[in-house]
Amino acid sequence: MIRFDNVTYVYPTGVKALNGISVEIGRGELVALMGENGAGKTTFIKHLNGLLKPTTGSVYVNGKDTRTLSVAQLSRIVGIMFQNTDDMFFLPTVEEEVAFSLRNLGFSEEVVQRRVDWALKFMELEKYRKRSPFLLSGGEKKRLALAIILAWNPQVIAMDEPTVGQDNAQKEKLKEMIKQLNLQGRSVIISTHDVEFVAELRPRVILMSRGRIVADGRAEAILTDGELLSSCSILMPQVAATVSRLADLGFNTKVISVEDAIRSIVDGLRRLEHTRGA
Amino acid sequence: MSILEGLKFYAGDTAIHKLDPRVKLLVSTIMLIIVVMYAEVWMLTILITVQAVMAYIAKIVRRWLKTIRGSMPLAALVFGLNAIFFISTDTHATLQETLYYSATLAYRLVLFLSSFSIFFLTTTPEEIGLTLTSWRVPYPYTFAFISAIRFTPIIAQELKDIMDAQRARGVELDRGGPLERAKKLIPILVPLLANALRRAYELAEAMEVKCFGAAKKRTSLRELKMSAKDYVVLLMSLLLFGLAVYYKLLPILFQG
């Protein structure tokens, strides 16, 4: 679906933001891009729809080199939700904002109306359809940004720091939306620092540092490796940090959720009891 | 976009950076006056050479060239409009003269922008503020001016981000005729204006929290003081300016 082939990107200022990135993201995968500030996460995301083209190497989307397609053509396949959603809004109502992108991408007026209704319903924004986007709360703005993208039904959805400025309830809602989108068969890529959010989603984690991929694997493996995370200025999830202290007792420490932690502790205690009994 | 980069200060430890900001501003102003006075290519070339030397000493050649590159579309517009105006009106000038005159006008515009670019690239917003304050400009105006300079690169970055956000929604900014392209500016300018207003409001609140305007007389941690080097540069600039004025006035004096 998406393939980075030895991609290097150097900004006009001379900063090398990506340095020899090679990675593949398959259809229907849920991926979290993690890393410290300046690791290259946003630059990576901007390569997905051709906003940035590699300085060397190539990025392929559905087998096609991004250099050969326009941003508009690639956006049909990859929808990107940027960190600052305010950069998107300029129309007087929520429904017009959703319709605008569809018209840009050449959908017929009948399809536009149908998709606007569907996207607003899916993102629970129906009651705000006549409201100004600028008057929505932070969480509602994120949902509107997602509605705008979902309306044209891209195969890949990339979100840059979706949890920034969101309260717990909004994060929960966002988490459920991401799971639902992924269940529908879409590839979802989120770039984030929010380790607790990632731990709950249990995605594949691509860990970046200084423009390179330093680790790529399941969340359970990467988010429990304290040394690796700290080298990228990321803290372990609280659950993993707590359970890691029980490693000496032989407990399973590769856990990142509360349920797994309970299971690990119960199993560990049972084993200890059994050993003592024996 | 790159023209705005020319307003951004880049730290350095060069002789140009260390010059008193008042002297640097005076040098830039002198260059501006000479650009206004002279339309002759030889003088404009001398000026751009002086600027290139200054940029080299200040180690900002690449950024200075970026300003020049950024001013090219504007220069091309000035050239085109002038050429069209002169050709369409009965000025008795030959095509060659018209093109030459239009080219020098564009050249002068580039020089004007590049001379002030050196000043902004090597002078901190604080130094600009101190310069204006030393000229008894009321501090609220000084603050407004240095805030505008300080926020220029931020707004330039924001403009880039907004363009990216709109392109990701299928807006093809570089397609269509002039009217269509002008229409495509609306999705860019509305968020930019909304963000700028929001930032202005936040800045005003932050200033109030920091008791802006509470004391009538402000003190400053750093005061500007001219050194011997500053006086040398000042005298040399005034001397060269005097020569430029004299040379320009010479034919008029002789005629008289």
Estimated helix fraction of chain A: 25-40%
Average residue-wise pLDDT of chain A: 92
> Cα distance, first to last residue of chain B?
48 Å
Order of helices and strands of chain B: HHHHHHHHHHH
Shape of chain B: flat
Secondary structure category of chain A: alpha/beta
Largest sheet of chain A: 6 strands, mixed
Per DSSP, the total helix count of chain A is 11
CATH-defined fold name of the largest domain in chain A? Rossmann fold
Largest sheet features of chain B: none
Number of domains of chain B: 2
Question: What integer value in Å does the Rg of chain A equal?
Answer: 21 Å
DSSP, total strands of chain A: 10
Which percent range fits the helix content of chain B?
A: over 70%
Number of helices of chain B: 11
Name the average pLDDT of chain B.
87
Unreliable residue runs of chain B: none
Number of strands of chain B: 0
What quaternary form is this? heterodimer
Strand ordering within the main sheet of chain A: 6-7-8-3-9-10
